[in-house]
Design brief:
The structure holds 2 protein chains of 2 kinds. In chain A, 47% of the residues lie in helices and 16% in strands. In chain A, helix 3 packs antiparallel against helix 7 (162-187) and helix 3 runs parallel beside helix 8 (194-223). Chain A is elongated and about 80 Å long. Chain A has 12 helices and 12 strands. A 6-stranded antiparallel sheet of chain A has the order 4-3-6-1-2-5. Chain A has a 6-stranded parallel sheet with strand order 10-9-8-7-11-12, with helices on both faces. In chain A, helix 9 links the parallel strand 7 and strand 8 (358-364). Chain A starts with a helix and ends in a 5-residue tail after the last strand. Chain B is mainly α. The chains are: A alpha/beta, B mainly alpha. The A-B interface holds A 30, 34, 37-38, 41, 44-45, 49, 51-55, 58-59, 61-63, 65-66, 70, 88-89, 91-92, 95-96, 99-100, 103, 106-107, 436, 446-447, 449, 451 and B 1-3, 5-7, 9-10, 13-14, 16-17, 20-32.
């Protein structure tokens, strides 16, 4: 029954296509990305290139071009196009965004380092007060990149608020690319000829288009589909359940386990936007609910949000869903607020009358801080579900599992053939890593294990 | 697991682009 009902929902959302077609798309995007990254190099040598220079200069130039291409492509990587995100999941896309930035930074840094080390330029060239416009632009670009990376790596340590960081990140990103383009233009090598000029103009324009799309077009689209707060209810453990309903439209369809970017009480053009997993059933529309833990600045003010407050929803995103990883049995492993996507999946399974066996291993520091206890009990009555609470610091009279979700807990509660079940992990990274390792020891194939990071940003 | 694949893709991309840069430098200087 489930698969027959799940299929049409999946087609309508367009987010759950077959694994094969997603894989093809996934490789397709990587191929296109690679082409765009090396494109400037290929074009530089075509159509009447300037006279050659020595090997070190040309290598330095190549690294500079590739570094800039990677940085320009970062705007595309984070552009939230759902067809780009669908094959990988936004968490993986953001991880790529972070890791490739170090590659780009290395390329950009080695570019002047080669010229300095081989005495093609002296250190004086980097003195912004007394140098060429080209060098000044280059130093500005590199300097902005250093500040951007430092602010991202040490945002929390520097005490930067998320909203401030986000605006700064966008401005610095544009500055890095624009200054680098000025640098290239002023040096004027490999950019002569109408074809090459057109290429560089197109690259610059696409960065602007991507930015305008994320920061202006998408918010304007969201403005036409507003939502309002229906209720905000407290749960134990500093968790709030935010329930919202659409105003003047039919709402959205999502896969249980997915998430959306939410703006509460602000213009959709504002920067105060956070990703939250749906906690409600995909079958219980058009209302949506989210389980939100007080953590950052915005989440701490949730308690004072009143019904009727405007909300804007950008989503759904993510591929963490049992509909993307179907199997004969499901094991959900959650820590703290990592329960939110699991609730959505369990509620959806219950609403669809699914009788496949499910196990929920749910870790929390203290019993008094466990959210959604009653809801989970109710779900256990409607599903073939075993709810196992694992309490780190239990009271003396606690009779359930205690400590962490370890070998013993898995041995006692995993289904009979653990390798056949599908696993969904959402919680603190150390928990997910240790559970993953234990599952691999039990011969669970890696593609049966799925993760969601809730500390996305 | 997907996160490990991502790191492999990043490292592969870094190697490929370094190779492409070397190819460019050699091809550019070989024109003389």
């Amino acid at each position: 029954v489930t698969s027959r009902r799940a299929a049409p929902v999946a087609r309508r959302t367009g987010a759950a296509q077959s694994g094969a077609s997603q894989a093809v798309r996934g490789f397709g995007w990587i191929g296109l990305y690679t082409l765009l990254a090396v494109g400037p190099l290929a074009v530089a040598l075509t159509a009447d290139p300037p006279p050659p220079r020595d090997l070190w200069t040309e290598l330095s130039v190549a690294l500079g071009f590739v570094g800039l291409a990677l940085l320009g492509l970062q705007f595309a990587v984070v552009s939230r196009f759902s067809s780009v995100n669908a094959p990988y999941g936004l968490d993986v896309v953001l991880q790529y965004h972070r890791q490739i930035s170090f590659v780009a930074f290395s390329f950009v840094l080695v570019h002047p380092a080669i010229l300095l080390a081989t005495d093609h330029i002296g250190w004086g060239r980097l003195n912004v007060l007394d140098t060429t416009t080209a060098a000044r632009a280059g130093v500005t670009s590199l300097g902005a990149l250093v500040v951007l990376l430092a602010a991202s790596l040490w945002r929390k340590r520097l005490g930067l608020r998320y909203e401030v960081w986000r605006v700064t990140h966008g401005i610095l990103g544009v500055l890095v690319v624009v200054a680098a383009l000025v640098h290239i233009e002023r040096i004027g090598y490999y950019v002569d000829g109408p074809g090459k000029r057109a290429l560089w103009a197109a690259m610059s324009l696409s960065v602007v288009v991507l930015l305008v799309n994320v920061r202006v077009v998408t918010p304007l689209r969201l403005m036409r589909r507003p939502w309002e707060v229906a209720s905000v209810e407290p749960q134990p453990g500093n968790v709030w359940t935010l329930t919202i309903r659409p105003v003047g439209h039919a709402g959205i369809r999502f896969l249980p386990g997915q998430f959306a970017w939410i703006r509460v009480g602000r213009s959709p053009l504002g920067v105060r936007e956070n990703p939250f997993s749906f906690a409600s059933s995909a079958e219980h529309r058009p209302e949506l609910s989210f389980g939100i833990k007080e953590a950052g600045d915005f989440t701490s003010t949730l308690g004072s949000v009143t019904p009727g407050t405007r909300v804007y929803v950008d989503g759904p995103y993510g591929i963490f869903s049992y509909e993307r990883n179907e199997g004969p049995a499901f094991v959900f492993v959650a820590g703290g607020i990592g329960i939110s996507p699991m609730l959505s999946m369990l509620r959806t399974l219950a609403d669809r009358g699914d009788r496949r066996p499910c196990v929920l291993l749910y870790g929390n520091p203290r019993w008094e801080e466990v959210p959604y206890v009653a809801e989970l009990e109710e779900l256990a009555g409607r599903l073939d579900l075993e709810v196992v609470h694992v309490i780190e610091q239990p009271a003396d009279d606690w009779e359930g599992e205690q400590g962490f979700i370890d070998e013993g807990v898995l041995d006692r509660h995993l289904p009979e053939h653990p390798e056949r079940a599908r696993y969904f992990l959402c919680g603190p990274p150390p928990m997910m890593e240790s559970v993953e390792a234990l599952l691999e020891q039990r011969d669970v194939p890696v593609h049966h294990i799925d993760f969601e990071q809730f500390d996305l940003i | 697991m997907r996160h490990r694949y991502t790191t492999v893709v990043v490292l592969g991309m870094a190697a490929l682009l370094t190779g492409a840069s070397l190819w460019f430098a050699l091809a550019a200087t070989a024109r003389s």
